[in-house]
Design goal:
By secondary structure, the chain is of the alpha+beta class.
Amino acid sequence: MADSSNNHPKTLNFNVGVLGHVDSGKTSLARALSSTASTAAFDKNPQSRERGITLDLGFSSFTVDLPEQLRAVSGGRGYDNLQFTLVDCPGHASLIRTIIGGAQIIDLMMLVVDVVKGIQTQTAECLLIGELTCPRMVVILNKTDLLPPNKRQTAIDKMTKRLHKTLENTRFKDCPVIAVAAKPVGPETEEPQGVPDLIELLKIQTYLPHRDPGGALLMAVDHCFSIRGQGTVMTGTILQGALAVNDTVEIPSLKVTKKVKSIQMFRLPVSGAMQGDRVGVCVTQFDPKLLERGVVCTPGSLHTLHAALISVRKIGYFKGSLATRAKFHITVGHETVMARVTFFGLPPGGSPQTPTTDPQPPPSDPHSPQPDPSPLSKPFSFDREYFHQDEYVIGQRAAGGAGSDPEQWALLEFERPVTCPSLCLVIGSKLDTDIHANACRLAFQGRLLEGFQEKNYSETTLPRLHIYKTKHKEGQVERVTDDYTVIGRNLFKKETNLQLFVGLKVTLSTGETGIIEGGFGQSGKFKIRVPEGLSLETKQLLSSTSKKKGKGGAKGEPTKEEEAKMDTQPININLRFKRYVFDPHKTMVQS
């Protein structure tokens, strides 16, 4: 956003996410790159400082002259400088939610890899999150000082080759790989090595990010503190919309609104800011302890949801199955919450399936706006019928692994309400999986299509959702009473309320169609009317079985052998119907 005072040069903010496995040296790299540390930078958490591990999204920045390629395209926008804001994302598994929270505003990802260890579990997870949220990446091989000088180059070349192989089938194919030593140890040198080259590479990789000041404000707050005599400052990044001095903003988690007293961008006062900017916002009469991190928005623009419908797609590296009624950690907006998941799709043989596809590669022109990385944002329709699935369905794969899964959705029922924007990215994971097990814990991704704000959504909204299960029951014809009526058995339990089934159609294995007329006696037997009448063959088959029944055992009961013979060719009765999962009346429907 242009600065209010003309004395300050106009700066373009470019957000670079620094991701990688725990202890790969992300924070030291950010420190080596930075000149101005923002307030949230480099681990406020004392436990984290002792271990030298990032526990929160640290932010720091450095400014360079605007690169030539941006000068050419920024034309009328008149930027003078380029500020790189480094978002140092945690590598801890349990903090995956933080990474996803920050990923929405990352323009370029730096994946930091320990050159000695190569790709580890969390490196792979960071790569996945990058694929879902970010158009470009640079890979940094860190800790090159730990390699023996005479074998250093060979080891770097070997690791570079391995990484290119790993990235071959991702949207980051052919991305640049550069070797550095951010925090060298040993007598050789204390100075970071390779950092000036890295800065030049980052400059080449920048593009004009698509920034839109329109729409409601949404700002991710990562730190909150008070300044005596001024008020409370919330620092964070504007994810969407714009903000100006004297605007009123809402803190939805606390249901309070505050007026913006002043705004700073990296210690310089400004009158306003927009999407992608990193800002400090000062408000009065607000206790900073109430909001360490969270979101701030235009009043009334965010919704608190008890349940949601999402488009869904399994993440290929996840090894488990995705079962209905299972619980997953759902990261949505800036929150991670447990939810029970119900998967559903289009009816078998119904409308054509629209395949979901992988995230698109970025456009070849680096300066054009980036596309939505997910084609999963099609509006949801309550007017269609959907088929209940016991688990997520994997589509047919060709020999080379090509192919796609059928279009599918999921109902998420949250254990506690969550506040989030519509159409936001949703990631489902199994974060309780052992962090040391070498397995991907990200299970599925999708977009939030519909949210349910009422607490009693299961009574008010779910009945509008036509998800059905098909049911099939099978019984046998016991005997014939006349040409149009048979008595059936074994279709219902003794205690079943047969009234519910009166009027439903059944088919006999001999081909006739009948209608259930009601119960017969007390043992769960029932009467079927066959409007077209029984065929001659069926009557013969039934009369031969009833004749057999006439001989033998006491009081006309068939003998064991006869019963066995009789049961070799019973006439079966098939009852098929659909039941809508969320229908409060549990009505049985037949097409």
